[in-house]
Amino acid sequence: MTTSFLKLKKELKSFAKRVKNFKYTDKLLIVFLLTGAVIGIENNLLAEIADDEITNQIKQINISTANFRKNFKKAKNESNRLIKGANLELIQLMEQGDHVIKPIWASWQFGSNSYYNGWNGFYNGRGDKGNSVDKFFNRSNNAFARNVSPLSSKSRMFSPYLRGSLYGTTRLKDVEEPIVEWEVTPGINPRRVEGIAPLVLASRQEINFQNPEMPTFEVPDGDVEVPPAPVVPPAPSTPGRPNVIYRQSDYSNIKKKFGDPVLVGSEIQDIGSISQTNIRGTSGKGKLDILHNNTEKFKIKTSNTTFTGIEGAGHSTIFTYSNDLDGEFKYINDYRAIGVRLGGGHDFEIDNMDITSSGNIKNDILAGGINYKVKFFVFELNGINSRTSTTTLNSNSSIIVDSPNTSAVFLANSNAASKPIEFINKGTIKVRKGNSSATSFLSYRNTSISNFTNEGNIILDGQYSHVAMDGYAGGYEGYFMFRNNQNITLQGTDNNGITITSDHPSYPSGTPISIIQLNKPIVMQGKNSKGISLYFLNRNRKFEGQVNGTTEKSFFNFEMYGKNNTAIQIGNGTTAQSGTAKFENFKFKSIDGIGNALVRITRQSGIQFVKDGDNEELTIEGGDGNIGLNVQRSTGMVNEGVITIKESANGESKNATGIVSSAGSEVENKGKMTVSGDRVRALFAIKNGKIENHAEIVFDGNTTESTKGSTGMYANHGGIIKSDETTKIKVSKPKSVGLFAENRGDNASYLNTSKIEISKAEITATDGAFNIFANKGGEVKLKNDIILTTGKDSLTFYTAYTPFNPGGKIIFENDVTANIKNQGTVFYYDLNNAPVGTFNFSSWYGNNFVNNGGSKLKLNMEEGSRLLFLANGNLVLSGIPTNLSSSGPIEITGTGYIPAAMVNSNLELDQDVNLDDSTDPYNKLEILSSSITNSKVMTGTQNRQLAIGQENNNNRPASKVKLINNNKIILTGEESTGIYAKRGEIINNGDISIGKNSVGLYLTEDNRGALDAGKAYNNGLITLGEGSSGMLYRTDTTGANSALAGGIYNNSKIISNSKNAIGMNFESPLGSKEIVNDSTGEIELTGENAVGIFASGTGNYNIKNLGKITVGSATSANSPVIAIYTNNGNSLVENGGIITGGDKSLGIYGHSVNTLNTSNISVGKAATGIYSLGGNLNLQGKLTIGTDEAKGVLITGDNQTVNNDLSVINLDDNSFAFVNTGNNNQIISNTPNVSLKNKNIFLYSEKSTGNIINNTKIKTTGNQNYAIYTAGTASNKAELDLRQGTGNVGTYSMGGQLVDNFSIIKVGESKVKEKLYSIGMAAGYYDKDNDVSVYTGKIENTNTGKIEVTGKHGIGMYAVGNGSVAINNGEIHLSGKNSIGMFLDQEAVGINNGLITATSDAVGVIGAVATNRAVFKNYGTIRILPKAGVGVLVKRDGVLEEYSSPSATVPQEGSSNITAEVRILRPKLPKTGKELEDGSVEIISPAGDQIPQIKINGRTVNPVEFDIDANSSNVKITGEGDSGTQILEPEISNWNQKGNVSKIGMYIDTSGVRYTNPIQGLNYLSDELEVDLIIGPEATKYTNSKAIRIKESILNPYNYAILLNPQIKKWHVYSGSLTWVGTIQSDADGEQMKALYLVKTPYTSFAKDKNVYNFSDGLEQRYNVNALGSREKQLFDKLNSIGKNESLLLAQAFDEMMGHQYANVQQRTFGTGKLIDNEISYLSKEWDTKSKQSNKIKTFGIRDEYKSNSAGIINYASKAYGFAYLHENEGVKLGNGLGWYAGMINNRFKFKDIGKSRENQSMLKLGVYKTMTPVNDYNGSLRWTVSGEGYISRNNMHRKYLVVDDIFSAKSDYTSYGAAVKNELVKEIRTSQRTSIKPYGSLKLEYGRFDDIKERTGEIRLEVKGNDYYSVKSEVGTEFKYKQPMAEKTSLVATLGLGYEKELGKVGDVGNKARESHTTADWFSIRGEKEDRKGNFKTNLNVGLENQKFGVTVNAGYDTKGKNLRGGVGFRAIY
Question: Is the N or C terminus of the chain more exposed, i.e. has fewer CB atoms within 10 Å?
Fold first, then answer.
């Protein structure tokens, strides 16, 4: 059948080719087939016919209708028969037809579907996931149940529910902390004597009151300094007649001697010792030396030199000569003064040569009757008329001119030599001697232009030298070109760049040409040098010309760096010249020079600098005293150059001037001028000089000196300046002026009026400058467009007018606008000679100003500006005009300006003043350096008000400014001042009341005044507000009259009840000033932080209090109230008055102090009577001290002596009489008797260099007193009676120095429970917490001393610490029960040479105690009579040495004289150290109270300490680098909820926040003999340290509990935390806990395998790097809280933290990609195509999950949504096609772990495919599809994990990517019209990888090493399909698929590795999923309804993997 169809198709195509308008299509074939039209008519339509028969056949068809019908019927019958036999084949053929006729345009299908996956089983993984994972464990609320150790006998009382070491994949080792036993035995614990800390006084801030802002306008004196114009030095004298000769010849030779044959070359006896040769150095550097010796001859010597002679038109080499030359030649007659002559029209080279001319040349040589001035030429170049002569000095060669009157290169052209000569310097030319030059030019009757080009270096470093000279040999016109392309430097003095002397008037005139092209500048570094010297300028000289057919122009280019240099000088100062001379293309610079001038012109006319060239620059940068144009005695000068004066890199220009016109000169400026700098000037016209400016000027001048300023334009001595172009002038600082015209009158030759006329100008003056100054008859005329701006402290107009001096004139030709800024001033007038109280402004104005043509002065007044400034008047307030008229020539706009100001005047305030009222006449005034007397009431309520204030100026005496208050000043605002004066006298006779941060009387002193200095007197009442000072004084260190006496004096009252007040405030660096509170003075300050007298500075002044000072109480001892304060070590405080201070106050704070017998100082609680920082103290009078560690006298300096002759000393409880904390200080106490109450210390000395001598009898009436407490030496020579009270100590030595007793010390009772020991003499201090001896001491009871111990538990002598010594040479008598004669501790040494005896009723006494390696040496007698007495108690390695007699040298046991019931007693001490089995933690704890050594992994660790803060009584943490963090009660968690005590034992809460609370439940211990002492981990919450020490003060309640349970003999000590080891440190006697220790067990100790070890190593590294309170610190707190009975929680925490979420990253990525694959496959297989180009788009949502029985693999559910796109291009052949596809998906994973971790994965996948069928498969039933794809995805992981009972988290972002290829083979078998079977098979290869994962945030962040996976997945299956038509173009389609798939790659068990971030820990493996090699059987059922517009699909399926049941529904639309 198929063959028949192919044949028909072929025949129909053949027919179509032959018939017009007939086109073959497959559709036409089907029509023919169905109609039967072509069957059986082979010989008709489809027969082979020729082209010419077609027409006939068509006609035959039309005619033979009947025939056709017959044949048609026959064909139809045949067709029906065939169709019935091949129905299926026909259907397939129709499908081929449908495929052929599909539209070629694109079709679109849109759809959406949703899928659900539900796992009813688990992935068959490793099978080791138990039921105990992923769950919370309930912890017990009982602290003992959680923390009891499994090793404890008490552990059986609790359930082991949470014991275990395996969780998930993590197995830990059992780490057991050893339990130590502490056996408590009673013992003796004497009181530890604490050191006394010195008083800490907070640094007191000095008052920060700023001087009130007063007018600083200084009276101008008319002496604005402008330096005179520099005098142009005279021109150098013209040289005499030189011996010069030149030739036009062409000859080459080397001469030997005149008259002798030549050495080599042409035999021509003419000029030149050497002629026309190349000169080259050979065999090294060649040398040619020309030697002069002041004779008539010179020598030429050479070495290593070859001469090559050139001669003739062909430039032939005529000789080569290499022998050394040594010839002598005459300057005159022989070959003349020429070294080498070069010419003849040849090119010569000087190569590799050093050529030198040295020595002295004889100046005058007589020859032929002519006296010659010898000039010598190293090289002379001559020209000829046929060829150019050229010479080159190569870069490896040099010419050194070290002889006078020498030119290195002489270019001499003469007569008919029409060709130029040229010299090119590429080497170095140095000129060092006078009147010498690098080159010189001569043109003798010759106009060809000689050329010198510098391509190398030319250096002038001598004096009077030249770079180039023209007219060198007699003044003939010069024709030359000098070009510089490299470096020319003038370094010496008086040197010249280019000197032209050929224009001398005595020489012939002509039209010379000088082309000076300085392409690189001539640099002038020396001084007194000139760039170009034109002493006589020929007006015909041209500076341009034709060279080789090109016009060459000059470029004048100079840079000056030196001193007194000139770029160009025109004129010699003596000869006048006229005529026009133009200069163009110039660039002159002075950079950091001094006294340089860019242009100097003298006695010339018609000189013009025009801008026709490329450069017109005149620049001054930096430097000092430089001038742009300096024109003297010259007219017609025109400048068009741009003048710039500005800063350089090294600073501003100073004293620079733009243009100077003097001595009748006339200058017209047309070039822009920009000037800025220090003391600069733009235009300067003096001595009848004139300047007309027609160009823009921008000027910005200032000054750094007090006597000189900047001036924009200055005219003097008849000078005239006119300017009509835009001008902007800005001047600043005093002595600077914008426009300044004056007739100085100091030169009778210049009597014309100096004038300045200006238009189009903006003139600004700031910071003390003047806008316009017309002085001494000078005139300033302001024409049109004038704007003036006057800034702060500046003056607009000044004329220096007085009634006897007319001053200058300021003329207004047109309206002038003046803008007056704040504190700027318009007019100034001196009233010195005016009548008192009168002032006529209109009359004064008319004498100084002229308004022409109705012009007006328009004033724009800013607030705070001044209109009028008056000086030297005597006025009353009611008589001063405050509102000047605005009529007439002045118009005023603005508000808030000051109508009038005063200076150097006297003003009486004769009416009340309201400072708040801006219209008050007083407030409208501004007053400076004047006297003011207040006779009325002044009030103000605003801040920063000043009632009366003045500052003196110049050097006026202070008495010239008197400020007197005779009434009232009331100021309630803040930062206000009653009366202020600078160098004045202040007298307050009335009342002054001030508010906050204010001053009553404020006096400052600058020491500039003559005759007297400033003083301030308070004779009235001053009332102060908060932070205010009654009297304030400050003085400068400088000033010519600093020796004058001055200061402040209080003769009356200063009172305040506000805080921070100061009565008298004084600061002085001078000894001439003083501060006195006189006998009638009273200062009463009751507020906080107040100071009666405050003195500072460095002067050696006296501070005197003869009156009464009372201060209140302070809230802080470090911010006390102070009666007298000074920080000045040079001052002396004298007190003869009464000082009364409250609590925490200071009576006197200073250095040297003297108190008189009238002195009475009394201070309250925590106060100090006298605090001395240095100097001696001589004390008399009375001293009364309060309680709370108050101190009578405290000295802190060095080398001080205190002579205590106080008659009365009263001490309250807990106070000190005398305290010394300095070095080398001595206290001598001579007060007769003193009584000590409670906690008093009479004499205290902190430093070992101190010395105390006590002659005062001391008696105690209370407890805990010390008579002498010292680190230095001390001698007690008076009786110390300590019997009354407990805890009293006679003498205490703590500095290793000897303290001896020569008198009687009586010792009372000790209270052992409170550790209050009464001791006669004590030495040393030992820090038991740190096991270190802090202080050592030495005490001796001399042979005259006696210590009587009458109270029980009293101690005669006590010494502690290595180095401490107690010696008894006298007698110790024990009569109190349980008393001790000598107690020696911690390696101290005790020596008994005397007698220790006890009475019979002194039961339980001990003669001596030696403990902790202390040594007791007994030479004397110990006689203990009572029962239970002990002779010597030896404890803890104490040593007893017995000597038979005081003279014995060898100890012998039992030999000494000891008598007692127990002669010697030696008890034992416990040990509490422990070590873990693996050695990771070791606590080495010797017996007793020694501080343990802690080692973690073999490294010694110092613990942090928990202790009680002495200031707050709170717990604080201290340790290295720790700042003492306090712990508060609310911070403690409920780690211990069930109390501290049970029958198990006692639980110690180590946080210490409840250390003051009594221990609850002590009754539980009443029947126990052995119990556990469990140390809680609470302290670990507040530190990152791995070792912690809990100090004794926190353990007091627990020690108390131990004392209350003496029946308990053993305490089993361990830490309650699983991860910590704990133990105790006992006291010296093993009775009490001195400290607890907690040491962290390294997490690595719990590791049982490498992976857990690596993880725990990182965890360990992270432990101590987290901020307290941070989440990661909280995580470690949770680990620390795991009890000994909860080990399973640690295993769980480790497993949770190890990142199992990352175990199957690849599996999740692979699965997400598979979801996209399924959707793409569905688009391809289930959605049929509607056109040749088909586009299929769908959105989808998928719910999936994963369950596994593998431990470490976390189950998860996921929800994905996305879209898929497929583009198909079908081929012509059915079954063939290609296309591409894309998919994007967002997959959200929800892990089913405890923390409910989440991950979001976004993936993009792109792919291409191609489908092919076999060539002969026309139905496309067998299809092979090849596809390739790639993907990239971005993952966001939020990992959450459980640690104990809290969820922690970490977050990461990472990227994965991959690629895959797939092959699929499908065979479709049609079983019927509606059914088919489709077996298939596929193989897909995929590779993917993810990048390194780094968790960025969270706790215990992990890094996961990037890893990959690969998939090899095969699949086979069969699909059954049924299609049932339902309606037109609508079908029901059902598909059932069965398949099997198997993964052969590595997707699950991929071996990912991780480690902790920010650690050095190694990687640990995260175990992955077991690979599934069993494969998966799956079924799929799809039922859908579809037509040409839409489709609906329902699907279901099942997977054996995970027992997954699938379902979904979808919809699509077709366009």
Answer: C
